[in-house]
């Protein structure tokens, strides 16, 4: 080595040392794009740890949360397809590289604190989860709106809360605050007691239907539990066969029976306000048009009628 090269070498050591001795890690300064290229390089280098999880746990076993992965499916050594049977921690977090040396070279991080794009995070999961059940994900609103698998799923846990009936609504309403407000209104499906869940009607990974419904249409979704409303009936009420949510808010409402509006306004959105139906109730309760039920006092078979004389939905 000549003197000039020696000098360069010494200088590079100084720079290298400075960078890694700095109070905060230089990696923390990287933006998302720079981080992606560092990780791409790590994958190209392919420096996986020969000791697998053991090398990670030297430093990470103090965290109960990290250790919890061994209580879940991903920590199962006996399932040949599980990460623990293969690259272990690095199957999800990428190769160790120089992460265990000074300076905390970054690993793939998931969830809200991650600077990585949702796409990059999700690709890791999709490496193993790409069966038919994941088909709808690609075009789902959640995918297009950059929701990450790890926004809903917790893998460092014995049980993933989003897979449990008693906790799935909490995960959904973390983001869906409007539906959370609706489900706590006076009239709603029994979701606030977790007797019903968002996924009774919606597919979290998307579906072929608008609003990611489980069934091909809104009405089919409702009929799956309210079969008696399917008909056919002799006298149909057109809006009922067309779309239940013309009159109902499926998430809940301040009005009885989850109605979007109260009668008579509910009815007068479509029915002319002349003739007998036009009677505006100045003093609620004074006659059959008044009171909480209004039009329904007489037209009680609002979902349709099978009575031979039921054409005006009165019986
Ligand atoms: C020599 C100790 C050490 C070893 C070995 C180690 N880590 Fe880390 N790891 C750290 C430290 C320190 C941090 C930073 C923690 C912080 O900022 O709170 C960290 C952070 C992380 C993070 C958070 C994301 C990030 O980039 O900051 C992940 C994920 C992670 N490590 C995974 C692993 C995995 C997987 C392995 C094994 C392949 C491993 N670690 C091995 C010390 C270590
Ligand atoms: C199936 C993929 C997967 C495997 C395998 C896995 N992790 Fe994780 N890890 C995640 C996800 C996703 C998160 C975000 C929190 C969560 O979902 O539980 C995470 C979070 C972490 C964190 C916290 C980082 C932060 O955001 O602050 C550390 C540290 C970590 N993992 C280390 C490990 C270690 C060590 C192993 C092996 C024993 C391991 N992980 C195995 C997916 C995985
Ligand atoms: C190395 C392969 C691998 C990777 C990577 C992986 N998984 Fe898995 N995952 C599995 C296996 C194996 C199972 C068990 C399923 C089975 O046996 O049918 C599983 C099961 C699951 C389940 C169902 C859990 C249950 O209790 O039934 C969820 C949810 C899941 N993974 C989410 C994720 C998420 C989110 C990621 C990315 C952070 C991820 N997985 C990454 C292999 C993987
Ligand atoms: C909006 C929240 C949400 C997101 C985002 C999400 N999931 Fe799920 N996932 C769920 C729920 C809820 C279930 C349970 C479905 C059920 O019981 O019908 C589930 C079930 C699963 C299962 C086990 C059952 C099955 O269908 O195989 C796997 C595996 C899984 N998800 C992987 C993923 C992966 C991979 C991603 C990202 C590409 C992802 N999930 C994104 C909420 C979500
Ligand atoms: C990390 C935040 C987040 C979580 C958690 C989440 N979502 Fe979403 N969801 C969104 C965003 C963002 C959109 C798109 C904007 C909107 O419609 O509010 C969306 C849209 C939807 C839509 C409308 C879909 C469409 O195609 O129009 C439904 C239905 C939905 N989410 C149901 C759920 C359910 C069920 C869960 C729980 C299993 C859940 N979401 C969890 C963020 C989230
Ligand atoms: C009884 C069935 C049912 C249940 C339970 C249900 N939804 Fe819905 N949801 C629907 C229907 C039907 C639509 C379509 C409304 C529309 O197209 O205007 C919808 C629409 C949505 C939308 C899209 C709203 C918009 O303005 O585009 C979101 C987000 C949503 N639901 C989230 C949730 C969440 C979160 C839960 C659980 C708290 C939940 N839903 C429970 C039936 C249901
Ligand atoms: C998974 C089953 C299920 C599905 C799907 C379902 N419902 Fe319900 N619905 C229920 C249950 C359970 C109740 C509560 C019955 C009770 O309290 O006696 C209920 C009650 C109602 C009520 C009466 C609420 C009240 O305050 O009296 C209306 C209106 C209603 N549902 C409309 C709908 C509409 C519209 C749809 C489709 C968007 C739908 N439901 C889909 C199970 C379901
Ligand atoms: C034209 C408006 C309208 C449409 C459309 C409509 N409903 Fe209703 N629904 C009502 C009214 C009004 C009530 C309250 C009846 C009462 O108080 O006597 C009600 C009550 C209900 C109830 C609770 C009482 C009962 O009859 O069991 C359920 C369940 C229900 N509707 C389901 C549905 C379903 C399912 C659909 C779609 C097939 C639907 N509704 C379409 C107006 C409508
Ligand atoms: C979304 C529009 C819409 C709403 C809301 C609506 N209807 Fe109707 N209704 C119709 C249509 C369309 C017909 C069929 C009219 C026809 O065949 O001439 C109809 C028919 C009727 C009939 C039978 C009329 C006949 O000539 O035999 C009655 C009675 C009726 N509706 C009462 C009500 C009541 C009461 C409400 C409120 C609870 C209501 N409707 C809400 C659209 C609506
Ligand atoms: C006191 C009982 C009563 C009340 C309250 C009532 N209706 Fe009627 N409605 C009738 C009778 C009876 C008929 C049949 C009239 C006929 O055959 O000429 C009728 C007929 C109708 C028709 C069929 C076409 C028409 O106009 O003749 C519609 C639509 C209608 N009502 C809507 C409504 C609406 C909307 C309300 C609430 C604003 C309402 N009704 C309140 C008794 C009532």
Automatic annotation (TrEMBL):
Keywords: Signal. This is Cystathionine beta-synthase. Residues 190-230, 237-274 form the Doubled CXXCH motif domain. It comes from the Bacteria. Gene3D superfamilies: Cytochrome C3, Flavocytochrome C3, Chain A. PANTHER family: DISSIMILATORY SULFITE REDUCTASE SIRA (PTHR35038), SURFACE LOCALIZED DECAHEME CYTOCHROME C LIPOPROTEIN (PTHR35038:SF6). Residues 1-21 form the signal peptide. Residues 89-163 form the Cytochrome c-type protein NrfB-like domain.
């Amino acid at each position: 080595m000549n003197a000039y090269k020696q000098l360069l070498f010494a200088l590079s050591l100084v720079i290298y040392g400075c960078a890694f001795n700095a109070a905060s890690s230089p990696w923390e300064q990287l933006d998302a794009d720079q981080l992606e290229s560092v990780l791409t390089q790590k994958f190209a280098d392919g420096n996986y740890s020969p000791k697998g999880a053991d090398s990670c746990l030297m430093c990470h076993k103090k965290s109960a949360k990290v250790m919890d992965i061994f209580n879940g499916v991903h920590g199962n050594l006996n399932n040949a397809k599980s990460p623990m049977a293969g690259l272990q921690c690095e199957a999800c977090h990428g190769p160790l590289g120089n992460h265990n040396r000074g300076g905390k070279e970054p690993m793939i991080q998931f969830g809200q604190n991650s600077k990585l794009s949702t796409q990059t995070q999700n690709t890791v999961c999709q490496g193993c989860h790409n069966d038919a059940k994941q088909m709808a994900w690609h075009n789902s609103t959640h995918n297009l709106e950059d929701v990450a698998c790890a926004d809903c799923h917790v893998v460092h846990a014995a049980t993933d809360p989003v897979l449990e009936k008693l906790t799935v609504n909490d995960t959904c309403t973390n983001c869906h605050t409007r539906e959370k407000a609706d489900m706590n209104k006076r009239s709603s499906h029994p979701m606030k007691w977790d007797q019903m869940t968002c996924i009774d009607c919606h597919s979290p990974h998307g579906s072929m239907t608008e609003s990611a419904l489980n069934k091909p249409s809104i009405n089919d979704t409702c009929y799956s539990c309210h079969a008696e409303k399917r008909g056919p009936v002799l006298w149909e009420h057109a809006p009922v066969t067309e779309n239940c949510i013309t009159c109902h808010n499926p998430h809940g409402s301040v009005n009885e029976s989850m109605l979007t509006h109260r009668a008579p306004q509910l009815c007068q959105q479509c029915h002319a306000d002349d003739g007998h139906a036009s009677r505006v109730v100045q003093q609620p309760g004074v006659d059959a048009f008044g009171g909480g039920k209004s039009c329904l006092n007489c037209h009680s078979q609002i979902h349709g009628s099978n009575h031979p004389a039921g054409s005006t939905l009165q019986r």
